[in-house]
Amino acid sequence: MGPAIGIITVFMLIPLGLMAYVSILERGEYGGVIWDQHTTEAYFAFLFDRNLDGSVALNTDYLSIYARSFWLSVTTTMLALLVGFPTALYMALQGPRMRAFLVFLVTVPFWTNLLVRNYAWILLLRNNGLVEVTLRWLGISDGPIDVLYTPFAIGVGLTYSFLPFMVLPIYASLEKLDLRLVEAAYDLGANRLQALKRVVIPLALPGIIAGSVLVFVPCLGAYVTPQLLGGSKSLMIGNLIQNQFGAARNWPFGSALAFVLLAIVLVAMIAYALRFRRAPGT
Amino acid sequence: MTGFKKIALAAVAAVGLGSTTANADELFLYNWSNYIPPDLLERFEEETGIDVTLDVYDSNESMLAKLQAGATGYDIVVPSGYMVRTMIAQGIAQEINASELENFSNVASPHDSPPFDPERKYSAPYMWGTTGLAYDSERAPELEESWKEFFEPRDELKGQIVALNDPVEAWNAAAHYVGVSKCTESSEDAEKILEVLENQKPHLAMYSSSGTIDRMVAGEVIMHHMWNGAAHRAKAKRESITYVYPKEGLDVWGDHFVVPQGAPNVENAKTFINWMLDPKNAAEASNYTGYMNAIAGSGEYLDDSLKADPAVNMPEEYADRLRPLLDCSTTARELRDKVWTQLKK
Amino acid sequence: MARVKRNPLWTFPGIAPAALTLFAYMYVPIIILIVFSFNENRIATIWTGFSTQWYGIVLGNDDIIRAARNSLVIATSAMLIATVAATFAAIGMTRHRFRGQDGINAMLALPLVVPEIVTAVATLLFFVLIGLKLGILTVIIAHTVFCIPFAYLPIRARLEGMDPTLEHAAADLYANPWQAFRRVTLPLLWPGILSGAVLAFIISLDDFVITYFVAGAGATTLPVYIFGMIRIGVTPEVNAISALMLIISIAFVTLSFLIGRIKR
Known about the structure:
The structure holds three protein chains of three kinds. Helix content of chain A is 70%, strand content 5%. Chain A is mainly alpha-helical. In chain A, helix 5 packs parallel to helix 10, helix 7 (151-174) crosses helix 9 (192-220) and helix 7 packs antiparallel against helix 10. Chain A is globular. The two termini of chain A are 21 Å apart. Chain B is built from 13 helices and eleven strands. Chain B has helices spanning 2-18, 38-48, 60-68, 81-89, 148-151, 167-178, 187-200, 212-218, 228-237, 266-276, 279-289, 304-308, 330-344, and strands at residues 26-32, 51-57, 76-77, 123-136, 161-163, 204-207, 223-227, 241-244, 250-258, 292-293, 322-324. In chain B, the strands form two sheets. In chain B, strands 4, 5, 6, 7, 8, 9, 10 and 11 form an eight-stranded mixed sheet that branches. Chain B is globular, with a radius of gyration of 22 Å. Chain C has helices at residues 15-36, 53-60, 62-95, 101-113, 116-130, 136-159, 165-172, 177-205, 209-214, 222-228, 236-263. Chain C is globular, with a radius of gyration of 22 Å. Chain C starts with 14 loop residues before the first helix and ends with a helix. Classes of the chains: A mainly alpha, B alpha/beta, C mainly alpha. Chains in contact: A-B, A-C, B-C. At the A-C interface, helix 1, helix 3, helix 4, helix 5 and helix 7 of A face helix 1, helix 3, helix 4, helix 5 and helix 6 of C.
């Protein structure tokens, strides 16, 4: 167990510690930080606005950006689960050769580049794009579909980006499915739904949780896909923080924003662990 | 398992052996993507025997952040003018005395003595351009040469406009329109700018700085907040695309060669810069990028399409509409960032 | 693993269509991508005619080839190291119960939570602080760090609820821990390890922000190169190189099949 912990401690925790230190430093005149001047101004700025006359007002801008990203991540995770679970089940039920093949099949598209995949979606979803042309040809729809640059397009694109991360962990859990258990359930009079509920899903649960984490958490920081498919009219957490290291050149603030995010996720994880804590040995 | 371990070790070893020390005849160029013709670099390699390795960045800010965090290894970077001032102030740029290079005499005024580096101790000019508006004259009536058409669009243009997805560009355009300084530290001014931007937002198709050329050529939108070189490249594919120099003022910017501190091949860097100050080479770069260079005498080597396009070959009467980019104070930058967040929240 | 004789698929109707939908969903953009790589037009989104010129340009463009090669080397290395480390970590975490386990879990998932730009700048600052010269190695290190949770979670999920009696049986039969691991645990874990490795690989292949900041001169990877093109405009060159990457991945899959066949 050592190596993983070691690698992460040295190359993640220590750099993060550096950034935590940065977040309480004074910002540099031209960007960067002044290493010996400390202030908690960055954290203060997350919630409050300091007006010119010195008064302080609550600023909910950043909170609404965070809320938007959270909401988007939740939706994406749900969608990925909806499409991913049946697929993982399908994969787990195949013969051994087919199973390995399907694992690769699920990930081969991701050998291409994120940007290129997003451009393909733009080609598909835009007005006069391929989806619209196909729908018109099939006689289903007439006019412009107006899908691109809406939240729907972002949802389609984001779910697409995270599919393998939901499918594969569920598959890994489900693969151990012993169909004799399902047969036994039927023999004992259960119908399909009950068999699903009592046998398959509990087995898949660790995979579902793993997949959900692997989709939800990175999705919080996603900004390329939302930007390209959504028209960039609203900021995500990712763009906001990126800006701080970019045009705004406010490293302490960017760092503070990241730690606020970290804190929120940690609190959620702790709450989850406390609620669902299982006894040792189960 | 052992097989895997063997492969892993081999891979790490190969990588370790691969990273050699800097060769005497190397140059590490760090530039915007698609901003220098590959053929030009090849010709440089043939003429001087120096092997050029090109790495890319996507924005001044990313490049600055990386250098500020302490990254080294690059011999030449290509920042915009306002960034050069920052780099000099932070000690990131090296003194190379570009003004003493042999070909420096080719540099046309005022590029030989810019406000951020009057003696050209640290930098040498590459390309320069403007940021204005481009629209498809076939699909729109003739527009007034003003930011008004952009911020308070006519009915037929509503929903057919794209603004650059950049806080600096948005702020500057609005500042010109409202008539305040781009580096204002006053919150009243910021309020006015925010108002203009917020009023514009519902009429925009989107904010985007990528794929601008493709978008205009495809006819997806009628008007685009655009750099002049991009407008030129778009015009090459769609004749009706016209570039506008708004009367309230528009940004003029330049990109310059700078040698960062800790560059491994300073002499090769100087050779390269000197070489790029030659009219023929500068013209080849211009022909490729669609932007003007700063070298006198390059005119005869320029493509006709460049000379004929007012977007690139700016008519004299517009000269007083040009406003240089400035690097603003922390307070101003904070205001700008707040406005951007408010706009997009 | 026991399998019933008759076709199990009709046990759960509807999942075959669902799987088919998913694969269609995944591959339609890819097909578009490939088709447009043969687009004659320089502008990636307007089709004007068939041409293979972009493949010629890509193969002649040393910078993009170098970037693609770097990407593959880095992804492979990061995947291998991360998967090995993650496997041991997963086994260690589920075999024993000890205090601070939740903390370790959180730590292993940490690279997922921190926004990439912050990790990027933090890691760069750290490398500069310890005087590590930027290059491909620094990219591999940084990638390994964020690949670990992607490898760890599927393996861990696989392990949970797995029957430890098989390993105990192996021990009873006088297998030493290494043999027990190789002959019993590893095959049982294999779907989890494969899933984790593959996820680690693709996440490394696509990374842009972290790579950008910690790469040394000459260590540009494909995503960094492509993202740099955004400002001027993406040409079908990018489609061509992506299609080439697809060919490489398919070749790799085919190769591993053939090897699997020979082994049997």
